[in-house]
Structures are given as C-alpha cells and as structure tokens.
Amino acid sequence: MLPPGMAELLQSASLLVPEETATGNDLTAADVWDHLAHDEWETALNLLEEFGDAGPLPLSFWERLAETAEQLRLERSAAWCHWRCAEIRNGMVRADLTLRPAGETRRTTPIPGAGVLRPMWDIGHLSPTGGPSVSIAALWVENLPELEPGGRATVRLVPLTPAHWTHLRPGQPITLHEDRTAGGTAVVLETRPPAASTPGS
Predict the structure, then answer these.
(1) Which of 17, 100, 156, 178 could hold 104 in an S-S bridge, CB 3.0 to 4.6 Å?
(2) pLDDT digits (tens, 9 = 90+) for 12-36
(3) The whole model's pTM is what?
C-alpha cells in the first residue's frame, strides 16, 4: 500500500525538473511520469535523483525526494537526498582523496561512504601562532559504500563553516586529519558555493 502523499511528492518534485533536462541515458521528466503511472515508485525516485547530476535543482526538490525515500525505507537514498540538501545550504567541494595505508595512521577500518564522518581538513589556513588551522567538513564517498585505508576515490565535502572554504580552487591540495597525523591527501576537483537564499532554492 502506497503511503499517503508519496505520489504527490514525486509528482511535485518532477515538476521542478526543467523540461530540457536529461540524465546520462537521455531520460527526461516524461519518463518519470511514465514510471509513476505504473506505480514504479522506487524507479521514479532513482531517476529523479539522477537529474541532480544534470544541473542544479532547488532545495525543495531534494527535500521531497528525501521524504519519499524515508517513506519507502530506502536508507541510503534518503541519506543521499539529505546530503544534497546540505550541499545546497553549505556549499560543496569535490576532491580526489587518497587515504594513507593502515599502519601509518590511527585508522584501521574503512571510512563509511554515506556522509556520517566529519573529519578535520587542513585547507591552508594558519592559526595565530603560525601553525595549521583545520576546518571541519562532512565526507561522502562517490559510488562506493566505504573507502578502505590506502584506497582512492572521488569524495564530496560539505563544510561546517562555508566561509572557511571560499578560497579553494580546482587543483589545490588539502589534507584529511582525524588526529594530528595526516590521514589522507586530496586534490580539489570542483567547488560550489552555498545557494543564494531565494524562494524555492
């Protein structure tokens, strides 16, 4: 039995996708409506999530998808949609991260991929005494459930304090810390500032 309001949530989310927007497989919002007409709710949700890579969508879009994913009890999908909401509010940095091998740092277990870890990052700021001043950002590993020590992956970072991160540019190196030792090094691939606080954003 479909939870009340789920169809309306997905329909209203699909209306926020521009008509010309298509996924990498050339699917459009019209395809979402086709899945909705056949009660294929999870497929429609997954397709709507893919539109997020085709161009910026408003905060309300991701909020509706997050609510739908929670009603469907799709935990990782719900976490991803909430993550995209956080990217819109706080900005986002994509980076190519390489973790140091086990034995070289305190960490001996994989980093969880779904945005639960909030490590510190040396992004080039100095403290009043001249030493490094770290900033905190949550970490999402793209396309992997977790990242093993010594592993390499593209990650997305959501800054806790967005103003600390505005100077970063593609190609810039940053360093992950979970304690005083460096836990990994990353190269910035892309930066996005927080979305402007406008209606529907």
Answers:
(1) 100
(2) 787 777 766 655 566 676 777 777 7
(3) 0.84
